[in-house]
Write a structure and sequence with these properties.
Blueprint (H helix, E strand, L loop, with lengths): L16 E5 L11 E5 L8 H5 L9 H4 L3 E4 L18 E6 L5 E6 L5 E5 L3 E3 L15 H8 L8 E6 L7 E9 L3 E11 L5 E2 L5 E2 L2 H10 L10 E2 L25 E10 L2 E8 L3 E8 L6 H13 L8 E5 L5 E6 L6 H6 L8 H21 L11 E3 L5 E3 L4 H4 L20 H6 L4 H16 L11 H9 L14 H10 L10 H9 L1 E2 L4 E2 L7
Parallel strand pairs: 8-13
Antiparallel strand pairs: 1-2, 3-4, 3-7, 4-5, 5-6, 8-9, 9-10, 10-11, 11-12, 14-15, 15-16, 16-18, 17-18, 19-20, 21-22
Helix pairs in contact: 7-10, 7-13, 10-12
Bound molecules: adenosine-5'-diphosphate (ADP) and magnesium ion (MG).
Amino acid sequence: MGKCCSKRQDAQPIGYKKTEIGISSKYSNGGSLDRYTPNPNQVGAQARVDIIRPRPTPSHSQRANRIVVALYKYAARQSTDVSFEKGDRMEVLDDTERDWWKVLHLTTQQEGLIPWNFVAVERSVESEDWFFDDVSRKEAGKLLLVDENPRGTFLVRPSEHTPRGYSLSVKDWEEGRGHHVKHYKIKPLDNGGFYIATNQTFSTLPALVMAYSKNALGLCHVLAKPCPKPQPEMWDLGPELRDKWEMNRNQIQLIRKLGHGNFGEVWYGKWKNQIEVAVKTLKPGTMSSKAFLQEAAIMKQFRHRHLVALYAVCSKEEPIYIVQEYMCNGSLLDFLRTGDGKYMHFEDLIYIAAQVASGMEHLEGKQLIHRDLAARNVLIGEKNKAKICDFGLARVIENDEYCPKQGNKFPLKWTAPEAIVYARFSIKSDVWSFGILLMELFTYGQVPYPGMHGREVIEQVEKGYRMPKPVNHYLPDGVYRLMLQCWDGSPEKRPTFEYLNHYFESFNVTSEIPYLEPPTD
Ligand code: ADP
Ligand code: MG
């Protein structure tokens, strides 16, 4: 087993408190790096309760009157928000709310709400085009390797392993090796400065970046151009829908049917003819709207870049609508079988596995059990971006279709034996399902236990049978061994999602052995 990585902090987890870590004298005054650290009170059984409790209000006086600068363009969606262009300056009037800050736009003089993650404090490190607050090593690689980016395109991101440290990721090219990404550790100094090589220290990150932009100083290439930044995630459709997940259904236009699931149809649609959404319609009688609303309130608060965002619900009439983020490439299962996923290389499959493990690591940390983890419940967006959906839904299904004893709709082939037999669902039964999902992934969407019926599978699995290593698909022994660990008969012996995420994040595709303590991160 590898060394566990230190936990990455999510963009804005619920029940987490903000702390500030000054990174240099220049940035320590109002422009310090905001990082999130877990609230130590939020552990164990308390976690689920805490996430629905309002966050303590940060001190208003400390944070108001700052000037922020827009990192992206934003078009207002409702009457209370303000549009802006990249580079626009705004004064923060109130930042006590979680996602929407009240500002005064310094050019248009408009006052209103803006999504907080589209801006950064002026002259802070987050306002730099090259600073990526929330990407992993693998994602950095994906973003940099886009064809349009020239050699020397770079980004700086917080280190996943070293507190107060950063990593510099640079696109490079070499004869015989082609394009690839090199990662350098940026280490912190006790006095607040930084260095990559001990003989060159800098008082701030921008000073370091500036120096390496002029001269490679031993790097693979001089820093040429900041990596283009993808748009940040939004968790609400608009400011008036924040923390209000019941929505009037006439705001939704259903445009095209995307598919049919166990519980109803799924549609591509638009909110107010403007923003793309996916709408799940639930067959009448599938669940009680009270139970569902409680669950929706929890699901709405689970935010992670590898979990599909739940925007709102329409539950006043049947059929209940669940309005979600739209993922343009549909389910992972369809993508692998009939979509562009058919052409994915092994390293893309590893990238998908890492993303699913990362989303599940988040649920593991928050003690939410998925209960229906499978390739059909992973959705694919642009550039092989993967997000888990339907987390929490299985719990509220009232219909017998979901009852283990009733057979066909219950995902027998994905469910751990103790969950089938004793209804003992846990994060460890999710780990079992993740192992099955891995087999679906590496066999490009093959049905698990091909040729076997559900009942036969339960009987055989209880006797110790496990799916063999596929013969007609490439699968390294190490990954197959990992699947077998996920299918350990004793739930407690199965790996954690934290470990699984680390395993796939640091999987070295070229040598086909995961190196768990990479020289750089
Ligand atoms: P299942 O029971 O197979 O999990 P679902 O009802 O969850 O079915 O979804 C049915 C299909 O609708 C999926 O296979 C997928 O193609 C599509 N779909 C579901 N949610 C979304 C979404 N958020 N964005 C795009 N497509 C979606
Ligand atoms: Mg589903």
